[in-house]
Amino acid sequence: MPSDMVSSRRPRRNNVKINTFKTYIIMEMTEQTIQQIERFLKKVAQKFPQAEGDETSALTDIHVRVSQDSGELLAFDDDDQEITRCVVEQWILA
């Protein structure tokens, strides 16, 4: 290949191809876990009430963080202010 042409292929390092795999564990949720998540989502929705007669609603991003170690489920607004949190016992690693 002429030196003034740029290759579109990415060089391999040491002829090693790296693959990334993600493992997903599917668990059956208990009724208590479902109720906890529903309450969590209702608390988030209550922070952004729609005024009566107002056809438009507040538009915001809601960031949700889950920690498997502690079982915490946290919600934050655009300004990184905590909206609500709960602990889901079923998610805590034994």
Briefly note the structural class of the backbone: alpha+beta
Strand order of the largest sheet: 1-2-3
- Listing every helix as H and every strand as E from the N terminus to the C terminus, the arrangement reads HEEE
Shape: elongated
What is the CA–CA distance across the termini?
Answer: 58 Å
The overall pLDDT, averaged over residues, is: 75
Question: Approximately how much beta-strand content do the residues carry?
Answer: 15-25%
Overall helicity: 10-25%
Count of helical segments? Answer: 1
Radius of gyration: 23 Å
Overall number of strands: 3
Main beta sheet: 3 strands, antiparallel
Determine the oligomeric state from the structure: single chain
Low-confidence stretches: 1-18
Summarize the structure.
The chain has 94 residues and is of the alpha+beta class. The chain is 17% helix and 16% strand.
Overall description:
The protein has 94 residues and is of the alpha+beta class. The chain has a domain at 60-94. 17% of the residues lie in helices and 16% in strands. It is built from 1 helix and 3 strands. The chain has one helix spanning 31-46; strands at residues 63-66, 72-76, 82-87. The chain has a 3-stranded antiparallel β-sheet, with helices on one face. A hairpin with a 5-residue loop joins strand 2 (72-76) and strand 3 (82-87). The longest helix has 16 residues, at 31-46. The radius of gyration is 23 Å and the shape is elongated. The termini are far apart.
